[in-house]
Design a protein that fits this description.
Length: 369
């Protein structure tokens, strides 16, 4: 999860979010699109209403576009649209279970998928890891994805949706990549979440920590007792542990400017301080106007989290480019997915895996049979 910034920091400081005893988390609302120029809906046996319960008789497929105050569906003006089907609705060619809701947004069509939480999790597994991994690592992923979703549902209970379908929350692409192993991992942990002090935790996770997970305060500036960072040598052999990128200075300068940093005539980048996990806390930029210090986490986001894969890297300026060589992939907070996989291979069950990466937490069943 796969790392999230301003929105997450806001959610971190909401007191009491995620109270286990107060939740009814069986249904979740996931934003699939937040500003699309157009959306295509199709499927078998699809029923469509205008959002107020009035049925719409339309020829499929549907082409949905934003109008001035509502939507145009195949050229017909409507205030909104809700679609459902016995199996799934196709949204831009991908299948989604539950209900699809399309509304008018400031930047385009907003598409929200409302569905049972457990169905959402089955569709999520193969987006975040592989269902071919050991079953105990799949179960661990199911629990933390459920915990994260339950927390966000409470924190965003007054918002139009609870989660985004991207790395801003959890990656989710519908039901097309569901399989029996993903379903088994979800079913065998049904209703189970991690709690701390009676509250469902913010179960952050990432792909590969590179040897040591990160404390939450080093990424978002806010400490959480169950996210203080632990040693993790289990991911060292993972294929994604080492990475290198060479980026021209001019490209870096342009990206930093787009990220809000006033950098002109960038000449060199040098590493700054490192924290106890070995990750950089800041970087020194040398430009025509002198030296500027930038937080490493913000530098990574400005550059792109798939370019600078973690903040645990070395940096060297070579002529007109900068060479970044690092380890790990992701923000490093919480569970290391590749580490969890190896721990499962080594014989640890999902309860042991979770207690290692989230020390002090409890596994609780808050709904289901």
């Amino acid at each position: 999860m796969k790392l999230l910034l301003a929105t997450i920091l806001l959610l971190i400081i909401i007191p009491g979010a995620g109270k286990a005893a107060m939740l009814q988390p069986e249904v979740i609302r996931v934003a699939l699109q937040k500003g699309a120029e157009s959306v295509r809906l199709d499927g078998n046996g699809v029923l469509v209403t205008d959002g107020r319960g009035e049925p719409l008789r339309l020829n499929f497929p549907l082409e949905i576009k934003r109008g001035r105050d509502g939507l145009f569906v195949n050229g017909r003006a409507v205030r909104g649209l809700i679609a459902s089907a016995p199996a799934f609705v196709l949204v831009n060619g991908k299948g989604y279970r539950g209900i699809i809701e399309c509304t008018h947004g400031d930047k385009g069509v907003v598409v929200v998928n409302e569905l049972p939480l457990e169905d959402y999790l089955v569709g999520l597994i193969n987006c975040e890891i592989s269902s071919q991994w050991p079953m105990e690592s799949i179960k661990a992923q199911a629990v933390i994805a459920r915990s994260y979703a339950v927390y966000q549902k409470e924190a965003r209970k007054n918002a139009p949706y609870h989660l985004e379908s991207t790395v801003m929350d959890q990656v989710y692409e519908g039901c097309d990549i569901e399989d029996s192993r993903a379903a088994r991992g979800v079913k065998e942990t049904a209703g189970e979440v991690l709690t701390f002090g009676g509250n469902v935790i913010q179960a952050f996770y990432h792909s590969n920590c590179g040897g040591h997970t990160e404390a939450s305060e080093n990424v978002w500036g806010y400490p959480l007792p169950y996210l203080q960072g632990v040693e993790c040598k289990y991911c060292i052999a993972a294929p994604s542990v080492k990475w290198e990128q060479t980026v021209p200075l001019k490209k870096i300068e342009s990206l930093l400017k787009s990220g809000g940093y006033q950098v002109f005539g960038l000449k060199e980048i040098k590493p700054g301080r490192r924290n106890e996990s070995g990750r950089l806390t800041d970087l020194h930029l040398f430009s025509a106007k002198g030296k500027q210090t930038v937080p490493a986490a913000k530098f990574r986001m400005a550059m792109g989290s798939t370019v600078i894969k973690s903040t645990n890297f070395e940096v060297r300026t070579v002529e007109e480019s900068v060479l970044f060589s690092g380890v790990g992939y992701g923000h490093g907070v919480g569970l290391c997915q590749w580490g969890a996989k190896q721990r499962a291979v080594d014989g640890f069950d999902y309860r042991e895996i979770l207690s290692y990466y989230y020390p002090g937490t409890r596994l609780e069943k808050i709904f289901g049979d």
